[in-house]
Amino acid sequence: MDDIFVVIPTLNPNIEILSSFLEKLQKITDNILVYDDGSRKEYESFFKEIEKKKIIVLHHYVNLGKGRAMKDAFNYLLLKYPNLKGVVTADSDGQHSPKDIEKIAKQINKHPEDLILGVRDFSKENVPKRNMLGNVITRNVFKLFVGLKITDTQTGLRGYPKIVMSKFMTTKGDRFEYETNMLIESTQKNVGIYEVPIETIYISGNSESHFNPIKDSFEIYKLFVKFIFSSLSSFVIDIILFWLFSTVIKTNNYIMLSTIFARILSSFYNYFVNASLVFKNKNNSSFIKYIVLCIIQMFISGICVNFIFKKLNINLIVIKLIVDIIIFIVNFVIQRKFIFVGEYEKNK
Questions:
Q1: pTM for the full model?
Q2: What is the pLDDT of residue 341?
Q3: Quick one: pLDDT at residue 205?
Q4: CA 70, chain centre distance (Å)
Q5: Using CA atoms, how far apart are residues 338 and 342, in angstroms rounded to an integer?
Q6: Within a 13 Å sphere around the CA of 29, how many CA atoms are in the beta-carbon half?
Q7: 150, 183 in Cβ contact below 8 A?
Q8: Which of 97, 174, 245, 257 has its CA 20 to 30 A from that of 107?
Q9: Under-50 pLDDT residues of the chain
Q10: What pLDDT does 12 receive?
């Protein structure tokens, strides 16, 4: 593990568990950095003791969050060690074995441009229900909204090659949401994801973890509100404009013309919101592809609404709603995978 550091953010740790973990870890590497994220005063002597064992200890005066501790540790190591190859982050609650940390470190050398995830097996009997349920929900949310198939979205055992560390230094988030934001930004920043199976270890039902399943899950899921806001607000604007145009236009082709005018205006709104707020990828290529997509879907919507209205003669707005809900789902998937995408998406 030459030129690779193990970074352990911690807050008021179980001294017995962390001491044992560090003792085992020092048998495989001397490159260890513990980040004290504003622990209570009574932990001062403990941190001084581990410093005597040639472990680097950095401190926050007050609790600023795991994300901030990770970014500050990355910054320190990138500046201090020019030959640094990367970092493995591990939790201080005994969930990660030195053997698995070594496995992740080896993959940093093999995959120098990928984010390495140590993934657990949540089908094991020792997995607490809150962890299993939280991972299942988050995993499916990621698959639906981000398009990433990730086995373990909440893993703290991760490998960051040097180039990946630098890319994620500007990622927002000071607490647990920072690790989630990195996963979301991986496609935008052209960072591949490589998964490595690790042991599934939980000590005392994971009671030492500072992850709050209610508070921190809210922090994670609120990140996806912008996805829903953009799509639904565009959808509402399109429906309102269609209704206005369909009541004003008095020609035989009023349905198609109303669809075209409404879609042109709502599409410009949707593009700029998606490009700036949601996918954060605005360029000439994405704009051209988006326009082509809108033209195709605009005519599909108009033709389908017109056909169903003539056949069934039911409320026009109801037909429009049903047709565009289907198109809305397809539209999001296409935008995510083909319009607002980085140079490559790699999910191994």
A1: 0.69
A2: 59
A3: 46
A4: 16
A5: 9
A6: 24
A7: yes
A8: 174
A9: 205-208, 342-348
A10: 95
| pLDDT value for 170 | 92
Task: Give a three-class secondary structure readout of the chain.
Answer: CCCEEEEEEECCCCHHHHHHHHHHHCCCCCCEEEEEECCCHHHHHHHHHHHHCCCEEEEECCCCCHHHHHHHHHHHHHHHCCCCCEEEECCCCCCCCHHHHHHHHHHHHHCCCEEEEEECCCCCCCCCHHHHHHHHHHHHHHHHHHCCCCCCCCCCCEEEEHHHHHHHCCCCCCCCHHHHHHHHHCCCCCCEEEEEECCCCCCHHHCCCCCCCCHHHHHHHHHHHHHHHHHHHHHHHHHHHHHHHHHHCCCCCHHHHHHHHHHHHHHHHHHHHHHHHHCCCCCHHHHHHHHHHHHHHHHHHHHHHHHHHHHHCCCHHHHHHHHHHHHHHHHHHHHHHHHCCCCCCCEC
145, two tokens: 């909204």
Distance CA 142, CA 110 (A): 26
Amino acid 243 reads W
pLDDT (0 to 100) of residue 230:
78
293: tokens are 């997509």
Using the structure block, give the residue that is written with the tokens 């198109």.
327
The token duo for 22 is 């560090």
- The pLDDT value given to residue 222: 62
C-alpha atoms less than 13 angstroms from C-alpha of 332 in its C-beta half-sphere: 20
